[in-house]
Amino acid sequence: MEITERQRQILFAIIEEYAEMATPVGSVTLAKVFDVSSATIRAEMVKLEDAGLIIQPYTSAGRVPTDAGYRLYVNSLVENLEEVPTLPADRGVYALETRVNAQTRADDAIRGAVDSLVELTGNLGLATIGNQLYLSGISHLFSQPEFIDSQRIKSIAKLLDNLEPWLKEAAPGKPLNIFIGAENPIGKSSGASLIISKFSSPYSDRSYIGVLGPTRQNYAHVMNLVRRAGYILEETL
After folding, report:
1. What is the pLDDT of residues 123-162, one digit of tens each?
2. How far is 23 from 44, CA to CA, in rounded Å?
3. Which long-range contacts (CB under 8 A, 24 or more apart) does 12-15 make?
4. pLDDT tens for residues 73-89?
5. What distance in Å separates the CA atoms of residue 181 and residue 202, rounded to the nearest whole number?
6. Could you give phi then psi for residue 215, rounded to 5 degrees?
7. Which of 104, 101, 137 has the alpha carbon at shortest distance from 210?
């Protein structure tokens, strides 16, 4: 189902507002953003629901994005992603680069990059170091409001248990790979997004670094950091 440019903008606004507030987004909030009536926003929301891009989690609530809605949003970010050297560099990127460059061993540099991603994103960080998967920030992940449900926790645990062999088997080839919710290879009901960057290291030309967090997150910020981390490690190592 095709959507209009205004519906696309409303969808993206819902995604960004939900990422920040972690509560369903209502028509009154969006009416102020777009300077139109709440009724107009509600009518557009119905069309976005019909397209499977947002849902109303319970009666009288606002809307939240679906995996399909997030995918549309992320695809638009990927399309606009420039070459790594010209990506915007903020304090987080500089902190990550400084931490990596301070290390003399490749494994310490990779661990440092992962730990920086944890601090900068609030997600779980991960990387392949030789034949092992390094994880950091599990407590950060499970402190997110989405993961108070035991079934989601089990689903994420299953994903993490099988992530290393899956990376070896599937070997995602793009510099940046994003798996949203049910797109994940395992743990499809976890409500999580896996964002990973491929880089060459002394251990393998298919090493990976990235984060695992809720589908509700600041994708532009996190995607930039993860891609930068892979680029910095490849250049440094």
Report:
1. 999 999 999 999 999 998 988 888 888 888 888 989 999 9
2. 19
3. 12/73, 12/76, 14/48, 14/54, 14/63, 14/64, 14/65, 14/69, 15/65, 15/69, 15/70, 15/73
4. 999 998 776 544 445 56
5. 32
6. -60, -25
7. 137
